[in-house]
Amino acid sequence: MSTRARSSNDPPIPAKRYFDASPTWFAWNHLTAADVAALRTEPAFEGQHIYFHLNHPIHFVRLVGLLSYVEIKAGRYLLLTLDDGSGACIEVKTTLRERKAGDNAEYPSNTLVDNVDVHIELSLPCLRINNEPVEIGAVIKAKGTIDTFRNTRQLKLERIWVVKDTNEEVKAWVETAKWKRDVLSRPWHLTQAERDEIDARIQKDSEKERERSQKKHAHNKQYEERKKRKFEKDERRRKREEELYNAGALPGSGSIPPRITDS
């Protein structure tokens, strides 16, 4: 993993407002564990969980590999180690679901990923995916976002499947090779016309948001003014009724006579 200053040989990275136009930004990037380890970070995007291959911004990743280890860490995290033969392994992480006192809700699993369960049997963690037991050596397809723990890349799990057979595994590797060849092998190029179109759309959206904000402010102001007028009207009516009541009362009726007791 590296965070470094850009060199003159690096393709320029467009501003973040243009990332939506990138072929990789909202895509499940089909990578290997070694690819994930080789992704760059950039000082301008540090702390944002944004990584780069060439000038492609990468956030979502799909991996395929053999399940080589299952571990429950600190009683809170489930770690699955995948070995995809790329020369690097990667930990796939999710969090165990915590139940607070009085929480009687029914959950689909005991982790934050609905189809993933883990239980301890004979002092060993036993993994289940889609209610089926999964053994070490099974081929796993996992999707998630990249995270870093102690300078080591991890995949924060969002979706996971067991690859059913060799044909499905081969298909997944073909998809990975095709993605790297067709998308990641060359820099992302954004034309000036595309930038202008995106800037115009952002400006239009900004103007719409400003108009909505102004309308909301005006609506709230009118509501408060109506509320104030109603309060003042009710208060004037109350005072008139009080004056009429006092004017029609008998002299001295406003005071309470002393209580007479037998001596």
From TrEMBL:
A GO molecular function held by the record: DNA binding
GO cellular component terms, A-Z: chromosome, telomeric region; nucleus
Residue stretches making up the CST complex subunit Stn1 N-terminal domain: 132-224
Cell compartment(s), UniProt: Chromosome, Telomere; Nucleus
Pfam families, sorted: Stn1
Keywords of the record: Chromosome, DNA-binding, Nucleus, Telomere
Stretches of the chain forming a coiled coil according to its record: none
Location, primary (coarse class): nucleus
Start and end residues of each stretch annotated as Disordered: 197-263
InterPro entries: NA-bd_OB-fold, RFA2-like, Stn1_N
Segments of skewed composition (Basic and acidic residues): 197-212, 221-243
PANTHER family reported in the protein's UniProt record: CST COMPLEX SUBUNIT STN1, REPLICATION PROTEIN A-RELATED
Protein's name according to its UniProt entry: CST complex subunit STN1
Species name: Neohortaea acidophila
